[in-house]
Design a protein that fits this description.
Blueprint: H1 95-121, E1 160-165, E2 169-178, E3 189-198, H2 204-212, E4 221-226, E5 232-239, E6 249-258, E7 261-270, H3 282-302
Antiparallel strand pairs: 1-2, 2-3, 3-7, 4-5, 5-6, 6-7
């Protein structure tokens, strides 16, 4: 009795070779030619075991064998997601896709707000608004006082100047002695000019407080805000003379702020300094100072 298990089919009996001269099923005649090579039986092919999903590439090289490595090296698997640095899948609808989308939108909005802030608030402390002005080692070489020389015809051959440079501020100063003629023993009046370039802090609030309230220092000073000079300007005047030229003093100061640049041109005189005549009136000197300030500021931006 055949004790073969029921789930294994019975092995088929081998077919006998037909005798020479007989006719095969295909209609050909079998011959007994000894030169014909007999057909070797084909060995049964073993079934290939299925590879489980997610299992890394397995080499077909025998263990300890020789020969080149596989043409395609094994691919590293990342069971919990894509490898680090991989871009998100195109058109993804999951949480990662939404996060990338909102990050991009946030960057655009932040850029727009940053640009808008610059427009509304002006430059940051690290980017001062110097309005095109540059520091001067010798400010006197840039001062134009042609209008004042209508009265003071003698030129000062040795005006005084100084300057300082610092990461927070650049300052230039010039002092000029004014004489009505070459016969004057001493200066008849004095002209001083100062320019400050504020490079770390905006001087706007302090400039307004100082010059708009300049009259609080002395009762004799009058303050008027004027237009046509930079962002903000004030004309400060003083006159303590009696009108006869017997005593007292007169002064005219024009203070200007243009961006983070501040400037003052000051004229002052004591009536006792004039040897032969009285000093010019405040109104006349104010016109001269305004004209000379306008041309001097132009020089300070173009030189």
């Amino acid at each position: 009795m055949d004790n073969r298990p029921e789930d294994i089919p019975e092995r088929p009996e081998p077919h006998a070779s037909p005798p020479p001269g007989s006719t095969t099923a295909s209609g050909s005649t079998a011959t007994g030619d000894s030169s014909a090579m007999p057909m070797a039986p084909v060995a049964p092919v073993a079934p290939v075991a299925p590879v489980a999903p997610g299992v890394p590439y397995q080499s077909t090289q025998p263990t300890g064998g020789y020969g080149p490595p596989p043409a395609h090296p094994p691919t590293q698997q990342y069971p919990y997601g894509p490898p680090p640095g991989s871009p998100p899948p195109a058109g993804g609808k999951g949480g990662a896709g939404r996060a990338v989308l909102w990050a991009a939108v946030g960057a655009v909005v932040a850029s727009a707000l940053w640009a808008g802030g610059l427009l509304l608030l002006g430059p940051f402390d690290g980017d001062p608004d110097l309005a095109g002005y540059r520091a001067r080692a010798n400010l006197c070489s840039s001062v134009d006082y042609d209008s004042l020389r209508t009265e003071y015809t003698e030129e000062d051959s040795a005006p005084t100047h100084n300057a300082l440079k610092h990461e927070a501020i650049d300052q230039s100063y010039c002092s000029i002695s004014l004489k009505t003629s070459s016969t004057s023993s001493y200066a008849d009046a004095y002209l001083s000019v100062q320019m400050d370039l504020h490079k770390e802090t905006d001087p706007s609030a302090e400039f307004t407080g100082l010059w708009s309230e300049y009259g609080q220092r002395y009762d004799d000073y009058d303050v008027a805000k004027v237009s046509g000079f930079g962002d903000e300007a004030y004309l400060v005047t003083e006159d303590t003379t009696t009108g006869s030229g017997a005593g007292g003093s007169r002064a005219v100061i024009l203070a200007v702020r243009d961006g983070w640049m501040t400037y003052q041109m000051s004229w002052n005189v004591y009536t006792t300094s004039y040897e032969t005549n009285t000093p010019p009136e405040i109104g006349e000197v104010s016109r001269w100072v305004k004209s000379d300030t306008r041309s001097t500021l132009e020089n300070l931006r173009s030189d």
